Structure formats: C-alpha cells, structure tokens
From TrEMBL:
Keywords: DNA-binding, Transcription, Transcription regulation. Gene3D superfamilies: Tetracycline Repressor, domain 2. This is Transctiptional regulator TetR family. PANTHER family: HTH-TYPE TRANSCRIPTIONAL REGULATOR BETI, HTH-TYPE TRANSCRIPTIONAL REGULATOR RUTR. Residues 11-71 form the HTH tetR-type domain. Coiled coil: none annotated. It comes from Lactiplantibacillus plantarum (Lactobacillus plantarum). The lineage of its organism: Bacteria, Bacillati, Bacillota, Bacilli, Lactobacillales. InterPro entries: Homeodomain-like_sf (IPR009057), HTH-type_TetR-like_transc_reg (IPR050109), HTH_TetR (IPR001647). Pfam families: TetR_N (PF00440).
Amino acid sequence: MANIYTPSQKAAKRQAIMTAAINLFAHRSYPEITMQQIAEAVGSSKGATFRYFTTKEDLFMTILLEDYQQYFTQLTTDLAQQPPLSADDFIAWMTTQTRQLIEEHSVLIRLNAIRGPILEGKANMQETITQREALYRASQHLGQQLVIQTDHLLDQSQFSHLFIIQSGIISGLINMAALTSFNHHKLSVDYPDFEIRLIPEAQQQIRYYLTQYLKEFSHK
C-alpha cells in the first residue's frame, strides 16, 4: 500500500532533502554529490527523492533560488530595524553585508557561481521561472526598503539591481580563484599572481563600484 503524506509531511520531506543536499555541498564539490547520497542522508530511496526533484540540478537550483529569496527577505526585515542611512552609511552597510554574505552563506554563493554553466542545463525551466519570479519580488521589496532607509538616495530598481552586481562580483572572483586549483584540488605549482583573497577583494570591488555609481546616479 502506497504511503499517503499530508501536505505538511510532504513539505517537511522536501525540506529534509534540501537540507541534506546543502550539508553535502558544504563539504564536497558539486560533481562529487549524487542523488543516491542525498537519499541515504535522509533515510529515503533514490526513487522517492526523485518524486520531489527530478534532477540533481533541479534540486540545487531550487536551493539557490529559495535561499536567496529568504536571504533578501531577512535583509529587508533587518533594514527596517536600523536607523536611516546616508550615502556613506549605505556603502559601508553594503560592504559589510558583502563580507557577511561570503562568510555566512558560502553554499549560496558557490551555487550561484555554477548556476549558468551547470545548473540551468537540467533544471526544470518552468519551476525555475516560478522561483525567479518569487526572488524578483523579494528583490523589489528589499530595494523599496532601501529607498525608505536612505530617503530616496536611489530608486527601487537601482537598489535592487545593485544586489545583482554584488552577486556578479562575488561569482566572478570565485571562478577566477579556481585558477590555483584543478577539480577542487590545490595545484602543487605556485601561482601567486593568480591568488584571490575573496572577502577583501569582493569588498574592495563593491565599495569602488558603489562610490562611482552613486556619484553618477544618486538623487541627492
């Protein structure tokens, strides 16, 4: 007799699968992870896992988009509790937030770096579009909160777009940092000019970009 799960049980199972995948990805490279390993981590069969996510790419794309949505929502909530931000305050906040994103959401930024070349190849397009629409709304809410917080330093669309720029800077640095390794293994050859210090260099890039951007586009 087939097991019949309630909606809450299905949601819990789906979340358990996502959590297991996140835990594996925190310690392994993407190619090293299999759906069988994820199924075993949640005490399930591979077939049962595929009923929730049809491919590994679909699973990790869902993690990426849903976690980014939650991240934007949390930023919006946190911002609402802060005092108003001047232009300099906003640059400092965004610079600090860049460090926190890298330090506290390493799975998120690593997944984002492989989104285009790997995940989109086999992820479900319609589900991805639905999740992107939810992410877009969360991004708009975050941008609108920054409009309020900075007393219209920029408009909502400009603020929201800056988080795409931030994401691009981090993803680009992550991919270029791989020049000192091959298939996630450190090379024995020394390439000092290829070394990238992710946090300080990402902060430097976002600070420089924001300074120039505000000079050109600020409403104040």
